[in-house]
Amino acid sequence: MDLVFATHNASKVREVRPLLPSYIRLLTLRSLGYMDEIAETGATLEENALLKARYVMDRYGLPCFADDTGLLVKSLNDAPGVFSARYAGKDNNAEANMRKLLGELEGHSNREARFETVIALVSPQDTHTFKGVVQGEITLSPTGAGGFGYDPIFRPQGETRTFAQLPLAEKNRISHRARALQQLITFLKTRNPGA
User: Fold this and answer.
1) Given 68, 78, 91, 151, the catalytic residue
2) Cut 0.85: pTM above it
3) What SS3 class is residue 154?
4) 68 catalytic residue (yes or no)
5) Distances (CA, A) of 154 to 14, 19, 114, 161
6) In 3D, which of 174, 154, 166, 179 has the Cα closest to residue 67?
7) What is the pLDDT of residues 84-115, one digit of tens each?
8) DSSP-assigned letters across all residues of 99-128
9) Kind and range of the H or E element at 25?
10) For the chain, which terminus, N or C, has the lower number of CB atoms within 10 Å?
């Protein structure tokens, strides 16, 4: 079964690919020859995920899933939220985003945060969404060389290490994206019970 993941983010593809059942051939925007960005103009994570998946489905006629992820920091009224990737500007610079977030948290004792991922699956038959959440906190400074985005400053609940310090297999067991993806995979298996 061909399934498109509407992303140009190689780190996301690396996280997702090992979790998918073997009968799914994962395609990406790059493998379809689509090199532009799909504008994320939605007001919520769900709207952005649906927008991207519908765009690919309408253009290529292939079942597609897309995700949108936000980091929601309690003492910042759930900012950066839907603007997480562009928090410090339009260029999606992870270092600048982390610097801005850490600067805004100076003087705040409550560093509670959560990551939320919404995955939208759009096929010729129907549309479904799946949500994964992981609670944690923002560290005082970046630690670790793995992961991407805010991973070096996010420590999941019950862990002493940041996402950037966790081996990929460990992160894939507990991350917000993995939790949403597991729901997607369970759904796909109900569609292909013999696979």
Assistant:
1) 68
2) yes
3) strand
4) yes
5) 19, 22, 9, 9
6) 179
7) 999 998 888 999 999 999 999 999 999 999 99
8) HHHHHHHTT-S--EEEEEEEEEEE-SS-EE
9) strand 25-28
10) C
| Cβ neighbours around 109 below 10 Å, total | 6
Helices (H), the chain: 10-16, 45-60, 94-105, 168-174, 176-191
In terms of Cα–Cα distance, which of 102, 113, 119, 90 is closest to 178?
A: 119
Is it true that domain 2-191 has CATH number 3.40.109.30? no
Mean pLDDT of all residues in 7-25:
86
Q: Where are the domains of the chain?
A: 2-191
Q: How far apart are CA 188 and CA 19, in angstroms?
A: 12
> What gap in Å lies between CA 106 and CA 98, rounded to an integer?
12
Examine the pLDDT at 195 and tell me if it is beyond 60. no
> Please, which residues have CB within 8 angstroms of residue 90's CB and are 6 or more apart in sequence?
none
